[in-house]
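Hi everyone,

Forwarding the result from last night's run.
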Amino acid sequence: MANIMDYLAWRGDLDFTQVPFNPVDNLILSQFSYLPLDGIVPGPDDNTEISLSLAAEILGKKLQAEAAANEKAVMYKDDPALLAAMGSSVRFGNCRLCGYVNNIDTSREIQFSAVCIIISDNSCFIAYRGTDMTLVGWKEDFNMSFYETIPAQHEAAAYLETMAQKTSCPLRVGGHSKGGNLAIYAASKCCEDTQMRITDIYSNDAPGFHKTVITSEGFLRIRNRIRSFVPQASVVGMLLDHGNDYSVIKSVQFGLMQHELYSWEVSHNDMIYVDKVTMGSRIVDKTLREWIDNLDITQREKFFEALYTILAASQAKSLSEIEGSWFKATGRMLKTLSNVDDSTKALIRKTLAALVGSASRNIKTMVKEAVIPIVPKAAK
C-alpha cells in the first residue's frame, strides 16, 4: 500500500538520467503544482529560475511561520511533507522552477495556476494546478457543464505557448483534476510546432470536454500521447467526454476521497492498476451524464448560478472557510435560499429531484445486471 511519499523514499536518491521519468513522477509534479509558490518562483515574464530545493526551503519556513501564527494555508494536509521530501531529494531537488502563475479572478470566474519544472533529463514538465478549495475554482468547474470552454482553458493554452518559446527541450504537460483537463486542452490548441515537442500529456482524474474539443483537429493530433488515469471509484474523472481510454488505479481510500493523489498506490516505477472502475463509479457516471443531458443549457446555467450564489452567501472565499465556521456560514446560506425567487426555487427542487430519480433508476439497473442468474441443472 505504497504511495508517492514511499516512492520518494525509494527513488529520491536517483536522478532522471539514472531512472527515467515515469507516471509516478507525473503524480508528484502534478501534486507539487498545488503549493503556494507566490513570491518564490519567478513568473513567465522573468527569465530567471530557482532550484526546487531552494524554493522548498523558503516555502517551508513560510509555512512554519504561518502555522505558528495560526494561519491556515489552502492546501492538502500532506503537502508540507511532500515539499520537504522533494526538496531534500536528488531526483527533484535539482529541478529548476520558472514561469509560476497564480491567477484568481472572481469577476471573470477564473482560477488558473501553473508552473514550469525543468528536470535533469533535459526536458520540461508543465504542471497545471487543479481546482483548489476556493469557491471561484469550483464555480469554474460548474461552468464546464454549460460552456464549451472556460477562461482557464484559454489561459492554459496561452501559457503553454509562452513557456514553449522560452525553451527548446522536449515537453511534458500534466495535472490533477481540472489541471489534467487544462493540460489536454492546452496541448490540443497550441501550434503544431509546439505539439511536435510534446512527448506525453498526463491527465489524473480529470473531467472531460464538450464534443467540439475532442473532435477538433488539434485534439486528434495529440490524442495518442494522452495518458489518462482514474481511481477505482472515480467521480470527477467520469464527467463529460474524454475522447480516449483511461487506466484505472488502485486507491487506499473510499468514494470521493480517492480523488486525492496521496491515496493512489504505486510501485518503484509505475502505479498499481486494476481492471475497471467500481460499480459505484459507473452508476455515478451514468447518473450524472443522464441528469446533465436532460437539462438544457439555460437550466444548467441557472441551477449552478443559484448553487454558487447560495455558497457565496456564506461570505467565505474557500470551502475550508465554510468548514471552519459552518454554523455562521450555513445560517447565511439558508437566509439567501429563503430570498431566492420562487421560479429559481422550483428549478432547484426539480433539478435535484431529477438527479435523485436518475440515480435510483441506474442503481436498480446496474444491480440487476451484476446479478448472475442461477440456472437449474437439467433433470436426469
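The two ends are 51 Å apart (CA to CA).

Cheers,
N.
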